[in-house]
Design goal:
Layout lengths: L1 H15 L3 H19 L2 H4 L5 H21 L11 E2 L3 H10 L4 E4 L2 E5 L2 E8 L2 E6 L1 E16 L2 E15 L2 E14 L8 E4 L2 E5 L4 E3 L12 E3 L2 H10 L8 H4 L2
Parallel strand pairs: 2-4, 3-5, 4-6, 5-6, 6-7, 7-8, 8-9, 8-10, 9-11, 10-12
Antiparallel strand pairs: 1-3
Helix pairs in contact: 1-2, 1-4, 2-4
C-alpha cells in the first residue's frame, strides 16, 4: 500500500535525522501528507490510525532527544558580555556556572553564549544568546533574541516576544506569544499547549497535526492587537498579565 510505504519512509527519516532543523522539515512534510490523505475518503477513517500516531510519538521522542543535545552546555559558560549588576543578577550568574539560572521577582537582563533558565516567576526577562532554554515559569514577560533555537516549556500566564531561528513551545498555557522576523513557511512548533494567543505566523501544533481544521489550542492575534499588547507591556502588572493583554 502506497500510504504504508510513505509512512515507513517517514519513520526512517526521523530516526536517521541529526538536527532539529531536519526534524522540523520532516514534521512539516508529514503534516502535508496527512492533509492530502485526509481528502481521500478511503483513507479518512485511517487518519488517526496507529501508524500515524506512532509517527507523531516518534517525532516527539526524537525532538526531545535532539533538544537535549542542542541545549547541552559544553564546559563552563563564559561570563556574560552584558549583565545587570543587581544582587539578583549576581546570584543568577553564580547559578549559571552550574548550568542553570533561577529568576524570581526581578527585572533581569542577560547576554551570553548559551542561556538555561530553570525557573522564572513574577519577572521581566530580556535575553540574548545563541540558544535559549526556559522552563517552569509564570507571571512573566520575556523578551528573547537568539541566533539559534529557543525552547520554552512549562509556563503559564506569560508573554513571550521572540526573535529566533527556531522556536519550540511545550506545555505553555494561558500565554501570549509574539514571534518577530518570521517568514511564512518557517513555523514555530507547539506541543501540549492550550489557550495561547499567537501573532500571524505559521504554527505546527503536534496535538493538532491537520491543517484542514483550526487548532483549538491557540488563537491568532491581528497586527493591531499585537501592537496594542507591545505598547502595554512596559506598564503591565505581572500578576495580572492575561487580564491586561486586551
Amino acid at each position: 500500500m502506497q500510504s504504508s510505504t510513505t509512512i515507513n519512509k517517514f519513520r526512517v527519516d526521523i530516526i536517521t535525522c541529526t538536527s532539529l532543523e531536519q526534524l522540523q522539515q520532516i514534521q512539516h512534510q508529514f503534516q502535508k501528507f496527512i492533509d492530502s490523505q485526509a481528502l481521500d475518503t478511503s483513507y479518512s477513517k485511517k487518519i488517526e490510525s496507529e501508524y500515524v500516531k506512532s509517527i507523531l510519538k516518534l517525532i516527539q521522542s526524537k525532538q526531545n532527544q535532539l533538544s537535549k543535545v542542542s541545549f547541552k552546555f559544553v564546559g563552563d559558560p563564559q561570563p556574560p558580555a552584558n549583565l545587570n549588576k543587581s544582587k539578583h543578577d549576581t546570584d543568577a550568574f553564580s547559578n549559571l556556572r552550574s548550568d542553570s539560572i533561577t529568576v524570581v521577582d526581578d527585572d533581569y537582563k542577560l547576554t551570553s553564549n548559551h542561556i538555561y533558565i530553570s525557573k522564572f516567576s513574577n519577572s521581566r526577562l530580556s535575553l540574548e544568546s545563541m540558544s535559549i532554554h526556559l522552563q517552569n515559569g509564570n507571571n512573566s514577560i520575556c523578551n528573547i533574541q537568539s541566533s539559534g533555537p529557543v525552547f520554552i516549556q512549562n509556563a503559564i500566564n506569560c508573554i513571550f516576544v521572540i526573535s529566533c531561528h527556531q522556536a519550540r513551545l511545550h506545555h505553555i498555557k494561558d500565554s501570549t506569544v509574539i514571534v518577530e522576523n518570521r517568514d511564512k513557511g518557517n513555523p514555530i512548533i507547539i506541543e501540549n499547549c492550550t489557550q495561547l494567543l499567537i501573532n500571524d505566523v505559521d504554527v505546527d501544533d503536534f496535538n493538532h497535526p491537520s491543517k484542514t481544521t483550526k487548532s483549538p489550542n491557540y488563537n491568532v492575534l491581528s497586527s493591531e492587537e499585537v501592537l496594542r499588547i507591545k505598547q502595554r507591556i512596559p506598564t503591565m502588572e505581572l500578576h495580572n498579565i492575561n487580564q491586561c493583554t486586551f
